[in-house]
Hints:
In chain A, 0% of the residues lie in helices and 48% in strands.
Amino acid sequence: DVVLTQTPVAQPVTLGDQASISCRSSQSLVHSNGNTYLEWYLQKPGQSPQLLIYKVSNRFSGVPDRFIGSGSGSDFTLKISRVEPEDLGVYYCFQATHDPNTFGAGTKLELK
Amino acid sequence: QVQLKESGPGLVQPSETLSLTCTVSGFSLTSYSVSWVRQPSGKGPEWMGRMWYDGDTAYNSALKSRLSISRDTSKNQVFLKMNSLQTDDTGTYYCTRDRGAPDYWGQGVMVTVSS
Lengths: 112, 115
């Protein structure tokens, strides 16, 4: 199975700062069809995960442009510029290129 | 708008079978796939399996021997059945609409495995 390693486990931030989360895959996430199915989700306490970024760098409907996904192959990053209170929670990367699909272990974005 | 809602028993006895239903609206099951994802309390999510839009299925190999996913397109429902439940199957179970990967999620249903 593909293992997604997220770092850091926790990211203390001050509101208005930039945050960066890394997701590294145990193998390339480039699908045979040429797409790279690497997604980012945010889960707030007591809520279902919500999709932020799909296929590495595409923002889902309604997601603010302060969320930026980048990367290729097996190395991916989510950057959040100007962190706002509603951005706090646990971020998960997810790959749908290989079966079984797998999630990273999560990165908790929290206030310093 | 797109909606998914999970339903099923909140408490299951060890060794028994879990049966959950995902009722969808706002999209067609013959155009979009639906996945089941579960999450133990305080832990990360785990992808369980998928009902593809064409009726094919895919399962997490760790669960494949116990898991079955089916659907009734006339009722806009997707079903999950998992047998031989143990206490570590306790958690919240979600169904999701997939467009390559989950985009819309249901609110989840909490399942506790306990005698």
